[in-house]
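Weekly sync notes, structure subgroup
Attendees: PM, AL, DS (notes)

Item 1: joint prediction request from the bench team. They want all two components modeled as one assembly rather than separately. Inputs as received:
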Amino acid sequence: MPAPASGRPRVVILGAGFGGLMAAKSLGRAPVDVTLIDRQNYHLFQPLLYQVATATLSPADIAVPIRSTFRDQKNTRVLLGEVETVDRAARAVVLADGRHVPYDYLLVATGARHAYFGHDEWEPFAPGLKKIDDATEIRRRILLAFEKAETETDPEARRNLLTFVIVGGGPTGVEMAGAIIELARKTLVSDFRHIDPSSARVLLIEAGPRLLPAFAETLSAFAQASLTRKGVEVKLGEAVTRCSAAGVEMGETSIGARTIIWAAGVEASPAAKWLGVAGDRAGRVAVTDRLTLPGDDHVLAIGDTAAVTWRDGGLVPGIAPAAKQMGAYAAKAIRTRIKGGEPAPFRYRHQGNLATIGRTSAIVDFGRIRIKGFLAWFIWGAAHIYFLIGFRNRLIVMLHWIWAYVTLRQGVRLITGSTELP
Amino acid sequence: MPAPASGRPRVVILGAGFGGLMAAKSLGRAPVDVTLIDRQNYHLFQPLLYQVATATLSPADIAVPIRSTFRDQKNTRVLLGEVETVDRAARAVVLADGRHVPYDYLLVATGARHAYFGHDEWEPFAPGLKKIDDATEIRRRILLAFEKAETETDPEARRNLLTFVIVGGGPTGVEMAGAIIELARKTLVSDFRHIDPSSARVLLIEAGPRLLPAFAETLSAFAQASLTRKGVEVKLGEAVTRCSAAGVEMGETSIGARTIIWAAGVEASPAAKWLGVAGDRAGRVAVTDRLTLPGDDHVLAIGDTAAVTWRDGGLVPGIAPAAKQMGAYAAKAIRTRIKGGEPAPFRYRHQGNLATIGRTSAIVDFGRIRIKGFLAWFIWGAAHIYFLIGFRNRLIVMLHWIWAYVTLRQGVRLITGSTELP
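Output from the run, pasted for the record:
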């Protein structure tokens, strides 16, 4: 692996998500050589991924090539690569193709994947939503289910095709449920001749006692009432015990459904394994209050990969602003250490939680201030446009939203890949 | 297969390309029941597909869901399905899943696929460009080649990664060559640290004596000179005798290249086989001057599927305006026959040929009037925006073009799917 021969400290960042990207940007003027490694060639604006899965946005609208983001940042190189492991003794990242990338400081920001609580065999039937390929696969399944239903003559099979189950009542589950019911009742309603798309059932299943547990209880209740009014069947306190091609089971109950979407749990990337440390139950790496590995100041972990304690012994939530704060902190901490200093501890400043419930409603929880309904949706939209990277993407996403809002049509209804359901 | 029980004549249209879509639209107010069958759920604006393959446009920008196009045309239903064969004795289309769709009039408009002149084993190494999945696959390969080159240490392997061969000097080949050289020399030029993307070789190989044989010779010469000035190596009179993972061979000569794009030949869909008639050398179905099968007035074939004679014994060219004229004619002919009349023969009115050569140059051949350079490019752009379906797509494509023109950036540089080359 040709390494820059500048003699400056080498900072290797794994993952170009919100945390990694922010760290790399923050090191733009630092006297270091930055290597940013990702297994994709783009940074993904994950909070809007559900809109790709539900045919409002195209993948490119919420993704920017990592290289073009750093084209003018001369101390930074971008590598497309998959991490195999980290050789902490030799201070080098080992990539899957055998390349070694040496580091003086390593920042692990590889995020999280959806997890099936030990039931990986459910994945083919209940895909999760973390990557672009996940989103286009879910879009394919949703649209194809309506197509197959249109020509299905057996009533039970047709009913199963028109039943959509979302497992998990966090923000992703709530957003998917809201978007699918609107797709069925608004966008597709006049498109078919044999089926009535608005008869589709959308079920949101949550094992806990309420939706959106990170929000205030009043907002959870509002979200639940809104979804119910739109036609979503919300089921609380029910744990899914099986997913298959036939549908989902919750203990004795079973629901026939050809489309299941998994939004129930995440698990950190295999960072703990790479680093040779023990991860917590969700695979996260325990870090010090300087976000370093205990006993190794040269390795930092941030974002969904790290378990960072917050008030009352809880953890910093797995949301984009938190990852960005950690990324900025990590960059600063590395600069301080290079100068021989000791960085101050990381302090998370919680700015709030946002989630949409369909086309024109959302909830915003700023702690003291809580907003729901249309105004919250406006704040949600403005925040997401603002934080999107690239003027082009902001403009295009805004146009798509205005278009979808005015016409109730969603333009990205493409079934790509196979036209068979699993 | 539930069939409409209106008692009105049933018109079944196979394929929602330019011809099929036009025919279905033209039958909107006719006293018939129309069934439009396609194996995709979208109509594709194929003339801009090369811009998806070269990262300027997203798939959804040039595709519209067929259903939404016909949502308000009540005599028309849309079916997602793959044709297995046609039972002409029983007057029914047989789909791959066993469904039978009866017809009184059948319109075959299933277009063409790229063909390898009996060398289908070349396809994995030299994908063609007819479908959206083709375009995203070619985009993946082009972008990945630059990524792999960035970390390749062997000089020959790196050179092969940075060599792009386009086989076939028709409009698609010319457009791809122009777009790839601009991607390398304009868009990607500052993005890498180890390789110089502008050192990439782009070769356009044509077996015939000149590029774009459908155009006037002066325009062919202009296109060749423009491409050469941009840096494309144009090779005329050289037939490719082998494509492999190593590159292409032309007799004794071989060129090492990891990316090969096939734009050399097309072959009609298997319509001749379905209909039980003999196809011509390119698989096209011979039709009468009423576009019907000889001896069967109930079956029509149009577009790239049909061999329709034109002036001097030549054939109507395989371009979108020709397919649309045939679609409109077929709809009118069916209406005439239903009323008991005999339609007048089909007359093709050739309006001209257009092709782009990169970002700001094109050639337009209206026969008497021939235009080249920027003005031709403007005409080309205006025509393509005008004929795109849907206001939303027109707006978005125009924005993408202006954006790419002003910034020299192309936003859709996503590597989706695998990150390995074949």
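Discussion: The CA atoms of residues 113 and 130 of chain B lie 6 Å apart.
Action: AL to compare against the crosslinking data before next sync.
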